[in-house]
């Protein structure tokens, strides 16, 4: 029969890891979804401020190429016209690094607690600590998840020490 302390440590590990990973993972998945739809939207123009293709017109700090419809023109984009202040490549890079990194760390944390691998949980916590700086408005939530991941790794180590040969105790 497994030690009750080991069973309790495993439960705490799963609880801490999942409770920490779900909120930031959901926010990251939502952010990735919104940004991915922007790539498909015909009413979105991608151009960094102050750049031009040589024959564009300037509007609110952004140069629009000929044929782009401002918000007051007729057409499919007449009610909404969005200009993103970066190129598609820059947006894709940021999308992969920030919300993609947060989502990857969340998945690693959940995988680590369910497979009782404290090293994987620690890597997830390290990824989250690195993501604290570029995640700006999510910095507190990202830091809280990193701390919960470190606590989950500690609980997983307690579980592995208390159980015979690291066997899962249910």
Notes on the protein architecture:
The chain is mainly α. It has one domain. Helix content is 59%, strand content 7%. It contains 5 helices and 4 strands. The chain has helices at residues 4-40, 88-97, 99-114, 118-131, 139-162; strands at 44-46, 57-59, 62-64, 82-84. A two-stranded parallel sheet has the order 1-4. Strands 2-3 form a two-stranded antiparallel sheet. The protein starts with a helix and ends in an 8-residue tail after the last helix. Residues 52-62 and 166-170 have low confidence and may be disordered.
What string, H for helix and E for strand, traces the elements in order? HEEEEHHHH
- Binned, the helix content reads 55-70%
Number of strands: 4
Spatial strand arrangement across the major sheet: 1-4
Count helical runs. 5
Report the radius of gyration as a whole number of Å. 23 Å
Query: Proportion of β residues?
Result: 5-15%
Question: What's the average pLDDT?
Answer: 76
User: Pairing-aware structural class of the strands and helices?
Assistant: mainly alpha
Q: Main β-sheet: number of strands, strand sense, barrel status?
A: 2 strands, parallel
* First-residue to last-residue Cα separation: 11 Å
Per the principal axes of the C-alpha atoms, what is the gross shape? elongated
Could you say how many structural domains there are in total?
A: 1
Ranges where pLDDT stays below 50 over 5 or more residues in a row are 52-62, 166-170
Give me the oligomer status: single chain
């Amino acid at each position: 029969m497994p030690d009750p302390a080991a069973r309790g440590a495993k439960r705490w590990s799963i609880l801490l890891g999942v409770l920490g990973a779900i909120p930031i993972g959901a926010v990251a998945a939502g952010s990735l979804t919104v940004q991915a739809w922007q790539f498909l939207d015909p009413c979105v123009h991608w151009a960094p401020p102050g750049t031009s293709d040589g024959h564009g017109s300037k509007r609110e700090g952004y140069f629009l190429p000929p044929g782009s419809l401002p918000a007051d023109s007729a057409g499919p984009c007449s009610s909404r016209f969005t200009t993103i202040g970066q190129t598609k490549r820059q947006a894709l890079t940021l999308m992969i690094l920030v919300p993609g990194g947060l989502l990857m760390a969340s998945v690693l944390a959940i995988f680590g607690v369910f497979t009782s691998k404290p090293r994987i949980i620690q890597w997830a916590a390290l990824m989250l600590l690195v993501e604290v700086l570029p995640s700006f408005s999510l910095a507190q939530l990202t830091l809280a998840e990193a701390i919960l991941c470190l606590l989950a790794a500690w609980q997983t180590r307690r579980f592995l020490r208390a159980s015979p040969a690291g066997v899962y105790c249910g």
